[in-house]
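Much of our argument rests on the idea that a fold can be written as discrete symbols. Part of our work consisted of pairing the sequence of a single chain with a tokenised description of its backbone. The amino acid sequence and the backbone structure tokens for this protein are reproduced below.
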Amino acid sequence: MSRRIWTTARKDVVVDTDIMAAGDAIGGLISFKVPSSGVVHVVVVTDAGDVLTMNIRAWMFETEPAGVATNAPFALTDADLERLVGISVLNTSKDAINGRLLFEPSADTTSGIPYVAPDGLLWLQLEQDGAGTPTFNATDDVKVKLFIEY
């Protein structure tokens, strides 16, 4: 059986320029057009402002959750937890001098986050994981993209 890879459009994560604290939401809720089922193998986040030097979590949902406001403490409702398909911890960071790339590489081809998206949409929200108080230079510094096997 041949593997097919779906690459989503790169989406803006609309952030604000206020100082953040550990555990805050990074931007609001984002939706991606995806195949109705698949496995998310890689989440890639780019930061043009070069301020995300800590790990971040990418929370993925099969249907639209209420979400958390940007720069607010990340706390999901019980109903949102029931929509959750998985969490990717982006713990690999590459400094590109004027920007930064964060991702979680798959260890092998069997890893990843399986999902079913009845409406052809996968929802995602980012959370700051760990110490640090980033302050973004511009509201459009952060972007995210998914690589999916289907």
